[in-house]
Design goal:
This protein is an alpha/beta fold. It contains five helices and six strands. It comes from Paracoccus aurantiacus.
Amino acid sequence: MKTSLAFGAIAVVLAGCNMNDSPASSRPAIAAPQTQTATEASVTPRPTAAPAERPALDGGAQTAASLDTTTPEEKAAAAAPASGGGKLGTSVASLGDATEGGFWVKSPLVKAEGKGRVVNIANGKSANVDLKPLAGSGAGSQLSLAAMQAIGAGLTDLPDIEVWQN
């Protein structure tokens, strides 16, 4: 009797092992719809406002000319020779925020905002700029897009510049 009971138990166990070969099991299972409880619904964040507009630079490649918002009059004024003032020092410059218009330099050489001039040491070209302080004594300077173009530097160049205060 023990033997027949053991064989019966084994037959029941093995019968469940071959369930994957039936035609019904080849159909995908349909998941039951999930519902939220009142507590989950109150905790789930809901958007309250439209998403913020994407910045202008996310739309693909843009040219330097399309980002340069300076007028021809501003470019002429920046190219005019400046008088007076003194040399603050030399610095390595890089392109600053290309979306911030105007002629400016941000430099650790500058202690207070004012007017000045930058000179590209390599070619002698200069531009009148707004001087803006930049934190960090070992940091280089940042030039506006218009100032980089005015001194004849490429946008990816790191020109050595002289910074002058008027």
